[in-house]
Amino acid sequence: MSSEKDFSTLDNLACNTEVHLQLLTPTKTIRLRSRLIGVDPGRAVILAHGNDKAWRGSSAFITDKQSVIIRVVNSDEQDASILAFRSNIHQIITVVGRWIVIRYPKELQTVSLRQHSRIPINICASLTTIDSDETISTGYLRDISIKGGAFVSEARGHFNVDSQYRLKMDFNGEEESISITIKNQQELDPSSRLAQYGFTLDADEEKSERLVQQIILQHLNQ
């Protein structure tokens, strides 16, 4: 159930906040980036209509009643979170600007970026040595928080607890990495030969939070 606080956060988002727009079509999923023009509380969310190659290639699907999923990163220092909701396009406005009017949502999904509890995800990742950048293992991130997370891959005896490694991920063709410290190793189902490696993030809070935002958005966009 969405709370009044969640809707209040949506209503008070700053103009020009980046918005991730997903068009739900029968044949493919289309993802676009936009920015927030404004929110008319209880009535509509107004987004800018982009003009890059991705937008031009999606013009046939940007129509009234088109189903969409909206995801917004609210980076307010007091309550950093990701807001997500499903709705549909109400109107395309081209008179005073190129705007897309989205029907105001009945329900919101929120994910706190500052909570210490782990957020379940499934993102491909790899671990490399901290100095030589040699890939040691490939697997996936199982959960993440602003403090750390869990990496799952084949069980390996040469991971050293309390040693530093570099965690690498690919976000739509852009590689991101961050130094981590392995804190524990736990064998999962023996038949799968997989192990879970708990780790802490070694970067400062600003970089860690930015990366966690990217990871969660990547997971939600899959």
UniProtKB/TrEMBL annotation:
Keywords: Bacterial flagellum, c-di-GMP, Cell projection, Cilium, Flagellum, Nucleotide-binding. The keyword Acetylation does not apply. Residues 113-216 form the PilZ domain. Residues 16-105 form the Type III secretion system flagellar brake protein YcgR PilZN domain. It comes from the Bacteria. This is Flagellar brake protein. The keyword Phosphoprotein does not apply.
